[in-house]
Amino acid sequence: MTPILEVTRVRKTFGGVVANRDVSLSVPEGKIYGLIGPNGSGKTTLFSSIVGTHPIDSGSIKFRGEEVSRLRVPQIARLGLLRTFQQTRIYGKMTCVQNLLISVPPAALSWRSMLARPSAAETKKAEDLLQFVGLHAKRHLRAGDLSFGQQKLLELAMALMSEPRMLLLDEPTAGINPTLINDLIDRLRRINAELGITLLVIEHNMRVVMGLAQYIYCLAHGELLAEGEPAAVKSDKRVIEAYLGAH
Amino acid sequence: MKRSILRAAVLAFLIAFPALLPAWRTQMSYLVIMIVFSLTWDLLGGQMGYNSFGNVLFFGIGMYVCAVVQRDAHFSYPATLALGIAAGAAAAVAVAAILGSGILGLRGHYFAIGTLGLGIAAGELAAGWDFVGGGGGMVPPQYPGALGGRETFFYYLAAALAVATFFTLRWLYGGRFGLAVNAIRDDEDKAEAMGLWTTRYKTAAWCVSAFFLGIGGAIVGNVSGFIDPRETAFAGSTYGVWMVLMAILGGKGTLWGPVLGAVIFHITKELFWTYLLDWQQVALGFLIVVIVIFFPVGILGWAREKWPEKFGHRVEEAKPAEASG
Hints:
Chain A is of the alpha/beta class.
């Protein structure tokens, strides 16, 4: 299957610290892949590199066959590659519905649409997505008044509103009520299966990532340590050692 | 319903004003211009989160360009005035578009500092440029109509501008433009990460602001009858500061807040000038301190925090029948 995202020998340093050292990974279209690794192993840095937050030192990042490592964040977003943030980012003083209504697909953001009103179809879609993540009752509340977990769900809905081809999710279950985690996993599966959105998920909750991802990459100290099916990675001695701090 | 009655009452009051209180026409012209100041400042400062201290630049440009056209174009008075106002607005928008592509790349405090010098620099330039009268200023041409007609005529122009500004902004805030500038205010990095053309929206917002300020400047030049580069046109220490204060007083990021703030501020200021002569600057300074300390979110901002339901921020019971994915 053709990879939708292909990262080849990406290197990113901050001063003397090597955050990513020759990391290569590829995600086939339509799959759910996991990215794990101990704290500080370079997962979020890799996400930031992929979506263009900071330039990479060397290597190549291809999205749908197109080199994107020299593009800026909004340009990459408009190609259909979005990320969510570990510390959620939402528009705090706007209502939940408004948060969604401004997260429309890039095609709806052209010059002409600057003066457009949100269409009935867009409003309906926004309300449906809020229903989907369980925030429908709070749709007219200011997003900043939501709990951290609810903001995470709102951010997910915003990403879906913009109809991306691929989503990079940075710890989607962190801060979510444990009783709701199974719900969220189910929703992520539906996003993948029903909307055809490819997912790459950073996750610390091993139970979640092992159950969700079809294939897992493990980073440690900025390098790719292991990769494979969840069962294989779980029993990989190097992975266990990295998590226990013996590396 | 209640709002449409309020709007109709305000409009009727504005139309009837010269007949009701003819002695206060000029005073009222300044008041409605204050509303334009406050509304246009709030578009960037309140709705978009870009605190500009240089908006008075566009006001001064509109004033000078209009006065130069009125002086040098030899058509009838109304024709040159109309041409002057259009040219003033166009020049202000052009300058906003050019400056915006550079300065709007600055964020937060850096943007505020970056704009601070604009008005001051323009005032000094105008004061040193003989073509526009240098430090001696300019005098717009005499109004040809009957005695006292000038005040009424320019009052109506100013009031029409304020009403047009209000409804244009209301319309803009109700659509994608409003959502986009609010998103930029709340988290510009997120807006970029979602693929928004942020620079486009920021520049457009500044141009809208400059458009109305340019027309305002053109009108005020004629209301005052004399253009001083630092005191009337590029009056950063008065108009430039007041527009910020009025928006903050009424409630940044709301539509009616800047209107309310401008009315309260202007009336208070004029009372100071009348009853506290010699101490008016001190009283005004004191008022500014009071505004910043006690009304950091403004009158409407305070009301919104106290009664969020009145502003539509409420939890609604989910309708189970609507289940969908």
